[in-house]
Fold each of these.
Amino acid sequence: MAPIPAGGTVAVTGAAGFIGGWIVKNLLDRGYRVRACVRDSNDDMKVGFLKEMPGYASGRLTLHDADLDQDGCYDDIFKGCQGVAHVSHVSDYTDHDYIARVCDHIIQSVNESGSVNRVVVTSSLAAVLSEMDLEELARRPVIFEDRYPDDANPKRTAKTQGYSMGKILAENMFAEASDLHGGWDSVTCCPSDNLGPILSAHQKNFGPWQHHVEQMLLGKYDQNWVYRPWFPVDVRDDADCHIGLLESTEVFNGERYIAWSTDAIDVSDVCAGISEVLPELDFRVTGPVEVHPERLQQREARYRELWAGCDCRNDRIRAITGVEFREFDETLRDCVESLISIAGIEPVRNQT
């Protein structure tokens, strides 16, 4: 199907969130009209930053109340839109019947819009590499779009792997529905660990990675689970990947693309990096708090070896969108400065 037209109208679900907010901003910067879908357009603690964007003053950005748990909440919003960036999270990833119901009613709103050409569904890197048995990483170490977690593992259930499985469920439902309808297509974006500048104070807790940096600034942060390194993507680059997939003439229904820089950085090196990119802070670097039970600590060396053996690829998203991913130092610096200036975080310092 056709990409969205230049200057067209795009609905963004989850527009008050970390990724959604940047998609809104970058769409406006590219000349689009945006319908920002939020739970409560009167909650200025969460949506005030959207109302401060120049596009809101002119009317090019409009805010719309939409609770995705309510069937039909997008019916009127999607009418007249050419594109939808479906970024919003469901409230429970362990209940796959609930996830399917939410997908169904959003799909119905797209079908009935009469105008939507393309939907970009935000999935996750977890839908690519989240394994119950990490030895699967040794068997299939290339991390690219055609890789899926091992569903044959009996321990992979909605309770243990609900987030990963729920994201794949949504990917498949949208792709199958668009294929059946024939009037729009669905493309999936699988972001990795989003980091970068927050746009609103509430966003420091609306995503794990910037919250981890907040905890580093406060002097106490956790070791990454199963010693996985951070696989960062700058949230601004992630937003551009979403928009590039809406615009591209070269994507096809059902395709998925990973948005990441392919860097792999240990959590303790992230903390140490704060001092390196912002020596002016006189930041006191600390080590992570060990959160693993002893039986997992005994496997630390093997886990780190498995992660180090992964071959991370981003050839497809770069070829399709032309996005050149930022250096991690820039991402970390801008994240820290935004946490201090926007969220009021006071870092621990060597002199205190």
Amino acid sequence: MKIIQFNSDNANHQAFTEELNQRVNSYFKERKISMRGNIALYVKAMIMLAIYIGAFVLIMSTSMSLWWALILTVIMGIGEAGIGMSVMHDGAHGSFSDVPWINKLATSTIVILGSNAVNWKIQHNFLHHRFTNIYGYDQDIQTKAVIRLSDHAPLKSYHKYQHIYTFFFYGLMTLSKLIGDFPQLRKFTKEGLTRQQHIDTKKEWAKLIGIKTIYLFLFIGLPLWLTDYTWWQILLGFVVMHFTAGMIMSTIFQMAHVVEGAEQPLPDSHGVIHMEWTVHQLHTTSDFAQNNALLNWYAGGLNFQIEHHLFQQISHIHFQNIAPIVNELTEKYKLPYNVKHTFASALKSHVQRLKELGGHSNEI
């Protein structure tokens, strides 16, 4: 894979980067607090895990109608998404705790999504964060089956309707990972990304097969063995759980990068983007609903995506406090700071972009 370089001789951009890092570092030093998680984050992690595991235990141990069981699978899906966004995500970035093994433990909760950490770290930590919204590099804006997420991707006639059908396919996100992890790991290996990350590919293949086998045994095999539900009822509940989690996570992730004002630049013929990497993040990323307390708590700070992209090593529990610093400095240096002030406005903007990417005019 050809590595893109970020290179700028713009003194304004360089000054912004320097002052931003200085101001944010001072914020933590002056308060004598860690950039990583704290007791509030650990309590939230326990709550998310309790929601997910508690609902599963009730299904397994209590006699109830199919409808009540399906409600509990929806609750499991809500917990699954919460774990992915608030626990696993910070752990994978090393920002959940100051203690490395606790970060690894938080990262390992990705097995609850039926996936594995290596694929996630290559796709998300390396490709998405390093090459944000760059077509051909950032996997998050690659075409997903029938969903066109980039201006630079081939346009098909059916994309005209993607603003209608996309959210259904968002619900298939975690389900698709159950199978999709295998060709993805093969692709990363073929492109040399696993070697670049010093990953033992044979070991990862064995772990991946083992994780999937145990996961399917726990969430399909055990209910078949220990409950009175039929095979189709168990499969239905499994799909409902994953559909709920996939819908939540996909929508929140895409509202940070596939919205109005989030650019999708391409490098020049020499593989260079003539911009500071920090400024590139401002041009390609969006915050939304910054004052929504429930969303801030549940979504793991993913609605503060600008702050997250600028400071991956900082836990999401701090984003609301450092956002004013970022906003102030973008105004000072006359740089973009793309914010959708409510969840509804961000969702509307995402639908608008889906329409534009599908070949519609700019009217929603």
Amino acid sequence: MATIDYHWQQFSFGKKIARFSVYLFFITGFLFSLRSVEVIPEFLYDAPEQIMDLLSRMWPIDYAFYPLTVHEAIIETLNIATLGTLVTLIFAIPLALMNASNVVSSPLIHWISRFFLVSSRSVNSLVWALLFVAMFGPGMLAGVLAIAFRSIGFVGKLLGEALEEVNMGSVEALRATGAPWGAVMLKGYCPQVMPAFFSIVLFRWDINVRESAVLGLVGAGGIGVVLNDSMNLFQWQEVAMSLLAIFTVVVLAEILVINIRNRLI
């Protein structure tokens, strides 16, 4: 009787070809991108020396600069992040409801909401800031609107997904009793979605604190304005103070968000 020799292999020939094609595509893309960057070797070799020179100019940090300018700018940055996040909710919540298939059944409404959500996410906050600075002039208003319009897509998409994941049992029970749409939302959807809602909003506020710190580079208010002015004047010790303040605020915001989430969720 002839014996059958079984040979086990993890991937078939077709899968090996597919994997090789993917690897080849990424390597080719990386090499092509590396050529298009046009790195100047002299600058690259000189980078460690330039970094050490810049750090030596930043030290010692000018702590006296904090109460003069940095403190007020940091408070303005936090205000921009907070107001921007609150303004986001005005637009993000209706779009999330329109995007949830178990809340609104119209495909046209879904496409309209997705258009606005994708449009918001596809434009960087600095680009939004440039646009609103051109419309309303430099200052805090442009920063608030830039943060808000950038955050609509993020909050709306995640909140819409949370709405679609609710247990429909209680919702259908309320509808069966003839409860109006508002009562169904408040008693059926909201209790299940609120933990995710708080988590999304807090997470987005944390991100907005970081993004609002750089909006001043294009004139949209906050600590970025102070940082940009110090860099233009080559006041590197003041730059170090601004960077230290930004780092401290970001870390404290992260700690605050974690503590609030642990208490609310």
